[in-house]
UniProtKB/TrEMBL annotation:
Transmembrane intervals: 12-31, 37-55, 98-124, 158-177
One Gene Ontology MF term: phosphorelay sensor kinase activity
Residue stretches making up the Signal transduction histidine kinase subgroup 3 dimerisation and phosphoacceptor domain: 222-289
Annotated EC: 2.7.13.3
Record protein name field: histidine kinase
């Protein structure tokens, strides 16, 4: 029964595809009729705009249907339209995606009709072949409206029985054919309606430019933070120690006890300065991460959380230092966000190395509703991922749970 329903869905998909292609003759006629006038004097602007608008809607529908079949999005590659009717017209005329849409529409008209008619014809042929003996017995004499199978066999009983296995074979073909036809049309849509290689390259360059700018800004902000922490913390303590030691040097002969107290105070300041410097270095690059690797560093993070945490590590090798640092700080930020905002009582961290990518999942049982626009934590994680051409996917419905899926390329 499940297979029958799947076959019915495939046939329905082919029916809709044929219907999507049916407006092609009208739209292509509008295009051919309006284009010369549009280019010459703008007289056919309305017809051309209508043809483009309808074609893009049909193409968008087919993209969504193709994405559902292929399991991967088929993005459009239209550039943003400028202001002004004639400026938009020039953009649309120069847009390669416009002409790919019309090329797809012309192909879809032919392919959609053929892919719909072919299974129907096979089922009708299978039915006639299987029922040929019955038809031969029921219609022993020509009627003027004879089925094709009777004309082929000449109402021969032997030949009619020979066609029965042929009909069964046609039924098998008709049953199995729609699925390849559906995938074929989906691939055609992906090839003609998806972004061109030039569009992909332009988008890639834009993404890398934005990522580089964000990384530079983040690095500059991190340097400013380190400078501020050094200035307000360790540097201030070192200045205070220098002053205390200077005073102690001046009064050591006249007041040995006071000088001793000042030296003790300076010594305490040294300890505090060392602690602050260690904390600062740990924030830049934790020693445990450099010495023992990502697995041990994440274990230390999980042990330091304020609520129970489950850890699933599937790491069999040391990764490059930048990748380990990005993964470590991403997990640290995710745990901090869960502790501050989610109200979670338990968290689960999974890190798996697939050889080509490092997959990180952080899941908490909090109240959900996480929004990257609401703070800098998730934006910082996304920036770290983007610097390595990685990806962050967030799922946080109201009521929870919140799931962060991160992917970092880590091929050797």
């Amino acid at each position: 029964m499940k297979q029958i329903r799947s076959h019915g869905r495939d046939l329905g998909w082919l029916v809709v595809s044929a219907a999507i292609g049916l407006p092609a003759p009208v739209l292509l006629f509008l295009l051919v009729a309006s284009l010369p006038a549009t280019v010459a004097a703008g007289l056919g602007l309305g017809l051309f705009a209508a043809a483009v608008w309808v074609t893009r809607r049909l193409a968008g529908l087919q993209r969504r249907r193709a994405a559902a079949v292929l399991g991967a999005a088929v993005p459009a590659s239209y550039r943003p339209l400028p202001a002004g009717a004639f400026a938009r017209l020039r953009m649309i005329l120069r847009e390669p995606a416009t002409w790919y849409d019309f090329a797809w529409l012309a192909c879809q008209f032919v392919v959609g009709v053929v892919c719909f008619v072919l299974p129907v014809a096979l089922w009708l042929g299978a039915f006639q072949c299987v029922t040929a003996p019955v038809l031969s017995a029921v219609l022993p004499e020509p009627t003027g409206y004879d089925p094709l199978v009777l004309e082929l066999t000449g109402r021969s009983t032997v030949l009619s029985w020979v066609l029965v296995p042929v009909g069964l074979g046609l039924a098998v073909v008709a049953y199995r054919l729609p699925r390849p036809l559906v995938h074929g049309q989906a691939r055609l849509a992906a090839a003609l309606l998806g972004p061109t290689s030039k569009a992909v390259l332009i988008d890639r360059v834009g993404s890398l430019t934005a990522t580089r700018a964000a990384t530079v800004d983040a690095s500059a902000a991190e340097l400013r933070r380190i400078e501020r922490d050094l200035h307000d913390g360790a540097q201030a303590r070192l200045v205070a120690m220098a002053m205390s030691l200077g005073v102690a040097e001046d009064v050591i002969d006249a007041d040995p006890a006071g000088a001793k107290a000042l030296v003790a105070e300076a010594r305490a300041g040294v300890g505090a300065a060392l602690t602050e410097l260690r904390d600062l270095v740990r924030g830049v690059h934790p020693p445990v991460l450099a010495d023992r690797g990502l697995a041990a560093a994440v274990e230390a993070l999980v042990l330091d959380t304020a609520f129970p945490a489950d850890l699933d590590l599937r790491l069999d090798r040391r990764l490059t230092a930048p990748v380990e640092a990005a993964a470590y700080f991403a997990v640290a930020e995710a745990l901090a966000n869960a502790g501050r905002h989610s109200g979670a009582t338990r968290i689960q961290v999974t890190i798996a190395d697939t050889g080509t990518a490092l997959h990180i999942t952080v899941r908490d049982d909090g109240h959900g509703g996480a929004d990257p626009a609401g703070g800098t934590g998730l934006l910082g994680i996304r920036r770290r991922m983007a610097a390595f051409d990685g990806e962050l996917r967030l799922s946080s419905p109201a009521g929870g749970p919140t799931v962060l899926n991160m992917e970092l390329p880590c091929a050797s």
